[in-house]
């Protein structure tokens, strides 16, 4: 009896340490999961600035922002926007690279035919010996003046002035005006990867913690039965006039103490597990309803049309 009481006492001394360690591990996991949220906010900030620079025709600045956003979140939409920005900036080699990289990640993109046509056009420009710069200035407008015709006129008659025909130049678009695009924008490009589930680890940890709490309650009930059994033995000995056995009393007290410890720790584990499970549900819902991608056309003066993938965070 004395050995059993000693083992129970040693087990009770270690139990709080085990439970505290489990809770510290869950807390560390929760802190580790907070980093993607901060990363997503930073990616959104870079994307917003990149879109603004693209709309303003500052393609070099847009490239920097889209690259920073892709480094934080590897979404293929940023690759498409980089290709569009490099194409508008006149760097055809980099544009081809990012178009092909985008198609490698999204092989069944709804706008695949349009992208392949752009790749063909860009490669033709590269073959002609241009397209590695990153300037944003439109190509100069060339005008052709036809040669004048010299005719012999009779003396005393002044020759008529030469007729010079200058083709009209392309003037910038007036503020607030944008001609309609000459193509129908393709539907939104979908990300190749399925919806992520960042809250799954929290839910698993919650279920494990709740399960441990339930086990603690079951063991607590067993200890309660042992305490009741010891109490009944003491009462029966007193009723029969038998000698008092101190081991039975020690066993009953140890079982009663263990019972309340297990009840308390079990309740804490169940409550913590429920909290982790609901937090995991919240994280998953926030992630799956955050990112939406759509293709939006853009028009720049003297440079034709384009499009960027618009991402809603």
Count of strand segments: 2
Question: What is the chains' assembly state?
Answer: single chain
| Helical stretch tally | 8
CATH class of the largest domain: Mainly Alpha
Summarize model confidence as the mean pLDDT: 73
Distance between the termini: 65 Å
How many discrete domains? Answer: 2
What coarse outline follows from CA principal-axis ratios? rod-shaped
Percent range of helical residues: 55-70%
Uncertain stretches of 5 or more adjacent residues: 135-155, 163-194
Based on CA atoms alone, the radius of gyration comes out at: 38 Å
Give the helix/strand class. Answer: mainly alpha
**Beta-strand percent range:** 5-15%
From N to C, what is the helix and strand string?
HHHHHHHHEE
The CATH topology of the largest domain corresponds to Serine Threonine Protein Phosphatase 5, Tetratricopeptide repeat
The main sheet comes to: 2 strands, antiparallel
Task: Describe the strand arrangement of the main beta sheet, using strand numbers.
Answer: 1-2
CATH architecture level-2 label of the largest domain: Alpha Horseshoe
CATH superfamily of the largest domain: Tetratricopeptide repeat domain
